[in-house]
Amino acid sequence: MAVYTEVSDVELTGFLSQYGLGEVTSFKGIAEGVENSNFLLRTTLGTYILTLYEKRVRPEDLPFFLGLMNHLSDKGFDCPLPVAGKDGASLRSLCGRPAAIVTFLDGLSPRRVEPEHCRLLGSALARMHLAGADFATHRDNALSLAGWRPLFERGRARAHEVRPGLAEDLSREIDELERDWPSALPRGVIHADLFPDNVFFLGDRLSGFIDFYFACNDFYAYDLAVCLNAWCFEPDNAFNITKARLLLNSYRAVRPLETGELEALPILARGASVRFLLTRLYDWLHHPEGALVKPKDPLEYCDKLRFHQGVRDHRAYGLD
Amino acid sequence: MAVYTEVSDVELTGFLSQYGLGEVTSFKGIAEGVENSNFLLRTTLGTYILTLYEKRVRPEDLPFFLGLMNHLSDKGFDCPLPVAGKDGASLRSLCGRPAAIVTFLDGLSPRRVEPEHCRLLGSALARMHLAGADFATHRDNALSLAGWRPLFERGRARAHEVRPGLAEDLSREIDELERDWPSALPRGVIHADLFPDNVFFLGDRLSGFIDFYFACNDFYAYDLAVCLNAWCFEPDNAFNITKARLLLNSYRAVRPLETGELEALPILARGASVRFLLTRLYDWLHHPEGALVKPKDPLEYCDKLRFHQGVRDHRAYGLD
Predict the structure, then answer these.
(1) Concatenated DSSP letters for A68-133?
(2) B26: CATH
(3) Does the residue B110 lie in any domain?
(4) In what order do the strands lie in the sheet with A46-52?
(5) Are residues A213 and A81 in the same domain?
(6) Which residues of B are less than 8 Å from A104 in CB distance?
């Protein structure tokens, strides 16, 4: 949650003159997204989100992200739709940063995950995977297997500050992941960051996904593994098999899982744990002392990793 | 700009069940107000701001603030209107904090102040003063003359960290303010914190004031002095006499200024400088090291104070 960039009146007016969105009636920074500056923009024609992409987003990836949101919307999957300017372009520049306007998506992200959320999430994720299957652009997952060891090396020397022995445990785990990581699973466009913050619900339905700025091409089942971690553990880090069963079964009711995908779930879940453990470790070690925006606790993902290390097969996730 | 408190689904649902605002369609933290947690709340019936009052606001003052917004709205002055629940109360409790919902006010606060903003501000401020004149509740200004010396003593020992000699200068200035502060000027309800952040404009008109959480009873002309400082200096701290003239003349076209008020402007402007210098000094000395939310620079108000110390009379502010 942050607004990093101040937008002046002159810059805003100049920027909006490139669109046909009517007159601005309100413009407020909102506490959404950790990585970018987000503003709620209301005009005489509607409500929108204006995003300025800050340093963690590579500008060359933005056409993939915005193109994907357009593609998914076209296919009837609910997500913010990039708004094109008068010249047809939706990606432009504001305050020296890449910037885009997207439509406002109604809904609330759950602060406390209920089993029903997991059931709705599973089928929506499968629908997203199917809707994205014919998206033509490709983006590698920079935060998958090949990225973990370099990221680990940047935090290794100080990992013991978070927990004694963490560096040794992580080194051994990455060895095993490099040895056992699957290579031949069904793949396509995945969200790759589908935490409850990024999923909106409205009444008894799921109203859409937001924040596609980690989306990439990778195993579909890896997206499920990310969700298992983000949605199916309780605040005390206890695994909730009921939530997992609902998530996975509602997913495969829309997009059936192959045997290879089922078998790979434990190792994918270990990899998904390592991915968030490593980025949280990095943020933990590099945040300014006493900062008001506290980094998330890496140890949460140590617990999740340990759970998946103890899993024999997919039945531990509630499947037959 | 901050959201300090996380509101859970259960707490939000329980809270909103006390209102007749329809179904929630969106709930987002917004980066508005330094002191409280603010959320944009959209429902099937409209758009609102939900505020949780954090530690700097005294709960016993809230009936004054909310009552004032009600009173001003009733009188046709544009500001957020507190929304009453089904029981008729607009002040209640959420997440252990006092909380209220107010209507959403359209408009944008100027990031860069133009002379026309000052002209519109002056007449609106006078209209606010007139509209509040028969507001029956009273609240002393805790940050006026009597509050300055105690606040100064809390920062005195470390004031030299901000600027060598600052403690001595401030001590002498407070002596003089205590000696020369006026006592018999017209008084009533003032806003007391009317920075550009708290004033909204829409096209070529001023659409309203927000953030009445420093409002109190004090000299009307003191509100003008606060505005002189907040609106009529350039980013390099040079005084802009054109902006001051527009502010003051448009004010007195609606509410004429007495001779005593004109004569008091320089000392009131010195006091208004000291007030913000002291609170900024305190925040500067007490913010956590490396915090992402940087406190505002106290030295800006040293420059403004020095300007007003050199002023002979109200003609320096562009008046005849």
Answers:
(1) HHHHHHHTT--S--BPP-TTS---EEETTEEEEEEEPPPBB--SS--HHHHHHHHHHHHHHHHHHT
(2) 3.30.200.20
(3) no
(4) A24-29, A37-43, A46-52, A97-103, A92-94
(5) no
(6) 26
**Average pLDDT across chain B, whole number:** 93
Domain count, chain B: 2
* Full-model pTM: 0.88
* Co-location of B191 and B95 in the same domain: no
Confidence band for B1, pLDDT divided at 50, 70 and 90: very low
At B131, which amino acid appears? A
Q: Looking at the domain assignment, is residue A1 inside a domain? A: no
Q: Residues of chain A with pLDDT > 90: what percent?
A: 86
How close is the nearest chain B Cα to the Cα of A312, in Å? 35
Confirm if A40 and A47 have CB atoms less than 8 A apart: yes
Given this model, what pLDDT does residue A286 score? 82
> For residue range B102-151, what is the model confidence (pLDDT) as tens digits?
999 999 999 899 999 999 999 999 999 999 999 999 999 999 999 999 99
Tokens at residue A242, please? 């009921």
* Contact call for residues A157 and A232 (beta carbons, < 8 A): no
CB contact under 8 A, A28 and B30: yes
Provide long-range contacts, Cβ within 8 A and 24+ apart, for A231-240: A231/A113, A231/A117, A231/A118, A231/A121, A231/A196, A232/A118, A233/A303, A233/A304, A233/A307, A237/A300, A237/A303, A237/A304, A237/A307, A239/A307, A240/A115
- What distances in angstroms separate CA A176 from CA A145, A180, A258, B19, B276, one per listed residue? 11, 6, 23, 55, 59
Whether A40 and A27 have beta carbons less than 8 Å apart is answered as: yes
Q: What is the CA radius of gyration of chain A?
A: 20
- Which pair of tokens denotes residue B256? 């004429």
With CB atoms and an 8 Å threshold, state whether A9 touches B112: yes
Let me know: does B290 contact A295? Beta carbons within 8 Å: no
Residue A2 distance to chain B (closest CA, Å): 8
Nearest-Cα distance to chain A for B235, in Å, is 13
Are B219 and B182 within 8 A, CB to CB? yes
Query: What 3-state class would DSSP assign to A61?
Result: helix
Among B27, B40, B290, select the one facing A290 at the smallest CB separation: B290
